[in-house]
Structure to design on (754 residues):
């Protein structure tokens, strides 16, 4: 219906004036290209006309880049995000520079005089929306981010054309105020909120409460202040934030203040004790639900302005509905939507579609249809097909393109911030384009990684696919990506291109979904055992989908590239990638060493043939590999435990020892035991310097020591597990080895020795 109207998306601009300001994009240039501030001109080819209230956005973004007679670079576009995307296109394709996670902005390492554009360059998106974030990214990756970290992320998003980012930070402030208003005490609210590293699952209604201490109210206030910056910046950059709202999950004490409230308990999550799960859910049919919704959304709009109509709302993420009844499900979604509309007449409900995959037994066709069908106007909802590259839901007959509700094709790719090198280049280029042709309600492409941990090229690729009608040619794409990745180091050696091309067709070209559907994890990060370590597949796979020798060859080429061009060692992207690829090579080698050890151990048929000295000899290479790995990782702050722990400490609102230890406990617990008693131990494990030496080495020592004490007939997994657990629990609050930063030069010397 808006087809002929020229549209842009910043609602702030709608409120302020007809003419939209390009100041936010100019400010981005000021931040990242301070020497070229006056060399760019941005021109919006459309003015704001009507506020948009439909998820079925019918306009794609477009831009044109040219050089003016006065020698400036002119970017014209039909929206702010189109201008940001056009700027990025110029920087990546003409200047060959970019901005990256972990490495930071390299946008300023191009020539001092910017190249002119001979023939104008045009670009147009093939989908109106580009989405970013998974609810859990806010805990796995961003739990302790500062404003500076956010600024980098938001510039990264804007330049890559993302116009629909999730914005969860600080939501507890709004929630706490809404709860206080109905008479709950701070103590009652406190028993509901989870710790700083676990908020995502509290927001999902999977868990409640906090083990190891309570979330300080001051932290909530600080996050709220941070969110003001985040949402404002998002709007300035032309993005529409997706904000939280009231989901229905409430403190148990709700029945004290609302004795007649219709509440039910959610299900138990991952074996957590009832104290921390079975979260109380206020039925949306209860009039108090709507009251809380109005209270929440009004408070939020007062705090951040009327900047969006999109609300993230997940009631059944890994949490099954109270009743298996289509009438009930229809009533839940209908009343939920009604509450949103009462609070914001133009509200759009954004839902992560994960439930339809993870709880597919419950979500039979009738239930999916009933739940989605409770919302009568299709454009009131927007569903994320969360894991579309491996487990697309839209295309199966149960989910049936979400029965007409608009949806977004998302790449999940990474679970729990796992660090393996991995990608499905074919699926993320070919499948979204095919989906676009076959589902008329597909309105966007997006990234829903649980953690942002490396493999950045895979995320760039899908976001760029959103601007290409046909599947991107990955050969040319990787080559261009390598050029801008290592910008600032002059002419790049061929070896770099060769190494990345070898990885492109192997590491990044998984097509064997039976072996792995997402980023792999290394066994060195898992609690050791002689059983069940190898061969796991699926979304937390150990199984490699490529020949490890190929990666070793690519690694050698990468290393060799610095021989003719030693200045590469000064390039932060090269430093990062060398650590990352070395990490993977060592991890692959570790798996082979483990196999040798356990095969020998297992082959001893009785106590006569068992030889503890042999086991000790075979154990040594494993421990040596871990030690080497730890040294390599410790050369780069992006790969150290101390970076994570210092960020947690810095975000602690007080320097009191109890506050500080609560924050480091949270940070440690998430990446190790994940839960008060190891409920999902090692789910979010990391190969980080300091964590390898301080946590994994001791575990493998306990394991190899045990193998030297007991032959395979006497092996008792419970005994071994008990010893490991004692260590794991002690480490939570008293870990050693916070990781050290030796500097990369030390690392190079070490590598040469190795
Ligand atoms: C750019 O989008 C506008 C609508 O906002 C449209 O009128 C125009 O034709 C598009 N230009 C190109 C080159 O696609
Ligand atoms: C946008 O509005 C401003 C001020 O109202 C006007 O000067 C400008 O020409 C308009 N631009 C377009 C592309 O319509
Ligand atoms: C918000 O941004 C300003 C700079 O614009 C900064 O001074 C302030 O510290 C930021 N707030 C938070 C909570 O980080
Ligand atoms: C918690 O949820 C589980 C189902 O997941 C259920 O069996 C159990 O009864 C629930 N407990 C409470 C206290 O609600
Ligand atoms: C947001 O919009 C509502 C309804 O249009 C209005 O009452 C309210 O004042 C606005 N709030 C802000 C902060 O602009
Ligand atoms: C839900 O009910 C349907 C029939 O009404 C039944 O076929 C299905 O097995 C039930 N699902 C569960 C998880 O109990
Ligand atoms: C709730 O259901 C009624 C009856 O089907 C329907 O008329 C109404 O539009 C629905 N409300 C929403 C917000 O979808
Ligand atoms: C990826 O692997 C598939 C299946 O082995 C193969 O057909 C395809 O050519 C490969 N693509 C690339 C870019 O290597
Ligand atoms: C892409 O993923 C689908 C499942 O979503 C799978 O059936 C197909 O084999 C994959 N294609 C490739 C090339 O990996
Ligand atoms: C070693 O033997 C045990 C049984 O004693 C078996 O469960 C396990 O899978 C074996 N491990 C390997 C790596 O072969
Ligand atoms: C123990 O194993 C060795 C070597 O496999 C074999 O020669 C010997 O007969 C076995 N002894 C017993 C008691 O089974
Ligand atoms: C165990 O193996 C070592 C060599 O690996 C050998 O020196 C030693 O004699 C063996 N011990 C027994 C009891 O066979």
């Amino acid at each position: 219906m808006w087809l002929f109207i020229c549209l842009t998306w910043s609602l702030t601009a709608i409120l302020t004036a007809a003419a939209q300001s390009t100041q936010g994009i100019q400010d981005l240039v000021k931040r990242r290209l301070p020497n070229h501030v006056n060399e760019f001109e941005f021109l919006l080819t459309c003015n704001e006309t009507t506020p948009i209230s439909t998820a079925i956005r019918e306009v794609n973004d477009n831009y044109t880049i040219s050089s003016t007679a006065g020698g400036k670079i002119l970017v014209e576009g039909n929206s702010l995000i189109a201008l940001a995307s056009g700027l990025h296109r110029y920087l990546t394709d003409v200047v060959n520079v970019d901005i990256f996670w972990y490495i930071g902005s390299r946008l300023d390492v191009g020539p001092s005089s910017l190249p002119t554009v001979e023939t104008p360059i045009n670009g147009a998106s093939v989908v109106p929306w580009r989405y970013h974030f998974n609810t859990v990214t806010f805990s796995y990756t961003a739990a302790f981010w500062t404003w500076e970290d956010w600024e980098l992320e938001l510039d990264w998003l804007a330049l890559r054309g993302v116009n629909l980012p999730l914005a969860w930070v600080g939501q507890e402030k709004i929630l706490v105020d809404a709860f206080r208003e109905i008479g709950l005490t701070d103590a009652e609210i406190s028993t509901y909120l989870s710790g700083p590293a676990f908020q995502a699952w509290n927001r999902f209604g999977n868990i409640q409460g906090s083990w190891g201490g309570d979330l300080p109210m001051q932290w909530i206030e600080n996050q709220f202040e941070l969110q003001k910056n985040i949402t404002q910046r998002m709007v300035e950059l032309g993005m529409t934030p997706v904000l939280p709202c009231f989901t229905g999950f409430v403190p148990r004490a709700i029945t004290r203040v609302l004795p007649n409230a219709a509440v039910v308990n959610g299900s138990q999550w991952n074996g957590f004790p009832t104290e921390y799960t079975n979260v109380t859910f206020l039925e949306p049919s209860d009039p108090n639900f709507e009251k809380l919704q109005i209270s929440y959304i009004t408070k939020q709009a007062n705090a951040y302005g009327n900047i969006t109509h999109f609300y993230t709302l997940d009631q059944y993420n890994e949490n099954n509905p109270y009743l298996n009844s289509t009438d009930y499900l229809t009533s839940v979604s209908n009343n939920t939507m009604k509450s949103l509309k009462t609070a914001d007449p133009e509200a759009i409900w954004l839902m992560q579609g994960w439930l339809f995959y993870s709880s597919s037994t419950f979500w039979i066709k009738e239930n999916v249809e009933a739940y989605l069908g409770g919302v009568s106007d299709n454009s009131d909802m927007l569903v994320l097909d969360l894991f579309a590259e491996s487990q697309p839901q839209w295309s199966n007959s149960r989910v049936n393109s979400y029965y007409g509700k608009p949806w977004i094709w998302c790449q999940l790719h990474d679970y729990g911030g796992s660090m393996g090198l991995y990608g499905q280049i074919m699926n993320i280029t070919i499948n979204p384009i095919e989906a676009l042709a076959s589902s008329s309600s597909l309105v966007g492409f997006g990234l829903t990684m649980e953690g942002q941990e490396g493999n950045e090229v895979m995320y760039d690729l899908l976001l760029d696919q959103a601007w290409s009608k046909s599947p991107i040619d990955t050969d040319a794409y990787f080559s261009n990506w390598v050029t801008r990745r290592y910008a600032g180091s002059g002419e790049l050696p061929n070896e770099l291109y060769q190494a990345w091309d070898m990885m492109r067709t192997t590491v990044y070209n998984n097509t064997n979904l039976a072996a792995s559907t997402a980023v792999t994890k290394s066994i060195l990060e898992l609690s050791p055992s002689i059983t069940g370590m190898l061969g796991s597949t699926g979304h937390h796979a150990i199984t490699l989908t490529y020949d490890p020798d190929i990666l070793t060859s690519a690694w050698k080429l990468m290393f060799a590239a610095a021989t003719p061009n030693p200045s590469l060692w000064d390039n932060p992207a090269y430093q990062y990638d060398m650590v990352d690829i070395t990490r993977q090579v060592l991890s692959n080698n570790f798996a082979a060493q483990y196999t040798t050890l356990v095969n020998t151990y297992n082959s001893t048929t009785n106590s006569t043939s068992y030889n503890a000295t042999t086991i000790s000899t075979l154990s040594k290479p494993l421990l040596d590999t871990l030690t080497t790995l730890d040294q390599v990782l410790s050369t780069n702050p992006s790969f150290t435990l101390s970076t994570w722990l210092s960020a947690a400490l810095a975000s602690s609102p007080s320097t009191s020892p109890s506050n500080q230890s609560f924050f480091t406990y949270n940070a440690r617990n998430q990446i190790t035991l994940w839960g008060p008693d190891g409920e999902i131990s090692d789910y979010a494990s990391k190969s980080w310097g300091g964590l390898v030496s301080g946590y994994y080495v001791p575990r493998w020592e306990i394991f190899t020591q045990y193998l030297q004490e007991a032959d395979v007939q006497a092996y008792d997994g419970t005994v071994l597990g008990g010893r490991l657990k004692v260590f794991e629990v002690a480490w939570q609050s008293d870990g050693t080895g916070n990781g050290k930063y030796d500097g990369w030069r030390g690392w190079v010397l070490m590598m040469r020795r190795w």
